[in-house]
UniProtKB/TrEMBL annotation:
The keyword Transcription applies. Belongs to the TAF13 family. Its main location: nucleus. The TFIID basal transcription factor complex plays a major role in the initiation of RNA polymerase II (Pol II)-dependent transcription. TFIID recognizes and binds promoters via its subunit TBP, a TATA-box-binding protein, and promotes assembly of the pre-initiation complex (PIC). The TFIID complex consists of TBP and TBP-associated factors (TAFs), including TAF1, TAF2, TAF3, TAF4, TAF5, TAF6, TAF7, TAF8, TAF9, TAF10, TAF11, TAF12 and TAF13. TAF13, together with TAF11 and TBP, play key roles during promoter binding by the TFIID and TFIIA transcription factor complexes. This is Transcription initiation factor TFIID subunit 13. Coiled coil: none annotated.
């Protein structure tokens, strides 16, 4: 059993580990969006850079952990939406938000398809 645990962790250790890269040299992926979100939730319009960096580290850690967990429960090498839903099933806020976003995505997809069909029919 310990060998399986060791094998699953070494799979991720082979890649460049973000924890090994100093914070100053790490790419800021979400900083602009996080600044806007922080302002929207009541922070200053220009929040401290340290606050944004800390929040970004937390977000990246959360995404990494959820991805690792989803890789463990699903088919090997693939993550599907159902894997994420399974992981958050016991958190009602996250579950309802994911459900809402998936329904909205489906509605938008159907609306685009209908729009494209109308556009295609009028051009002929």
């Amino acid at each position: 059993m310990a060998e399986n645990d060791k094998d699953s962790t070494t799979e991720f250790d082979e890649d460049d580990n973000e924890e090994d890269i100093p914070l100053e040299k790490r790419k800021k992926i979400f900083s602009k969006e996080l600044r806007c979100m922080m302002y929207g939730f009541g922070d200053d319009q220009n929040p401290y850079t340290e606050s944004v960096d800390l929040l970004e580290d937390l977000v990246i850690d959360y995404i990494t952990e959820m991805t690792k967990k989803a890789m463990e429960i699903g088919k090997s090498g693939r993550i599907i939406v159902e894997d994420i839903i399974f992981l958050i099933r016991k958190d009602p806020k996250k579950y309802s938000r994911v459900k809402e976003l998936l329904l909205m995505s489906e509605e938008l997809r159907k609306a685009r398809k209908a729009f494209d069909e109308i556009k295609y029919a009028t051009t002929k």
